[in-house]
Amino acid sequence: MDAEISEGIFAAYLDKYEMVYTRHYRVSRGKNVDFKIKTPSVVLCDVKEVQDSRSDSGSKIDAYSHIRDDICKLRKKFKNVKPQEPVILVTMNFSSNFFTAFTVAQAMLGDVGFTFTNGKRGEARHLPRGNAAVTKNGNTAISGILVFDAECGN
Questions:
Q1: In the 3-class helix/strand/coil scheme, how is the chain assigned residue by residue?
Q2: FRET pair for 14, CA 20 to 30 Å: which of 78, 119, 122, 152?
Q3: CA 16 to chain centre
Q4: 57 pLDDT exceeds 90?
Q5: Residues 6 or more apart in contact with residue 2 via CB below 8 angstroms
Q6: Confidence class of residue 15 from pLDDT cuts 50, 70 and 90?
Q7: What is the pLDDT of residue 36?
Q8: d(Cα 136, Cα 19) in Å, to the nearest integer?
Q9: Lowest-pLDDT range, 104-113, 114-123, 131-140?
Q10: Which whole number is the average pLDDT over 108-130?
Q11: How far apart are CA 151 and CA 126, in angstroms?
Q12: Distances in Å between the alpha carbon of 41 and those of 1, 14, 36, 85?
């Protein structure tokens, strides 16, 4: 699917709620985000898609890998400039598979593990070395991820 289509869907959503925004807002030299939204405060949004692989092998791109890759691409836009506003990755699912909030949490916070003590399983938690894409010390740009459902506009 073309990026302009997903950005158009998101723009229609913003228009529906009469939000003021600027398209293709420049954030650094030669780099821009898709939207600068003005509410009582300012939020920067970049729209990305999760979609099926175009390879001949028929394999699918899973949402976990796709979202992690989108986080990396968005961070690169702010490589030399630390954003002063919150930055949100808006992801739309156009793949043949659905994904859950757990998939998004894993992409952001890393792999999940359990501790076993005396034969009892502890609570699920994100592993300290679980390959997190967003951490307290390592995150310099992304504030969060919004999973946008294009079918119902949520």
A1: CCHHHHHHHHHHHHHHCCCEEEEEEEEECCEEEEEEEECCCEEEEEEEEECCCCCCCCCCCCHHHHHHHHHHHHHHHCCCCCCCCCEEEEEEECCCCCCCHHHHHHHHHCCEECCEECCEECCCEECCCCCCCCCCCCCCCCCEEEEECCCCCC
A2: 78
A3: 22
A4: no
A5: none
A6: very high
A7: 96
A8: 30
A9: 131-140
A10: 75
A11: 31
A12: 31, 15, 10, 8
Question: Which two structure tokens, joined as six digits, stand for 47?
Answer: 């729209």
Both tokens of 107, joined, read: 């992409």
Q: Is the pLDDT of residue 26 over 80?
A: yes
Q: How far does Cα 144 stand from its chain's mean position?
A: 7
Which two three-digit tokens encode residue 123? 């609570």
Task: Tell me the two tokens of residue 32.
Answer: 């821009």
Strands 87-93 and 42-50: parallel
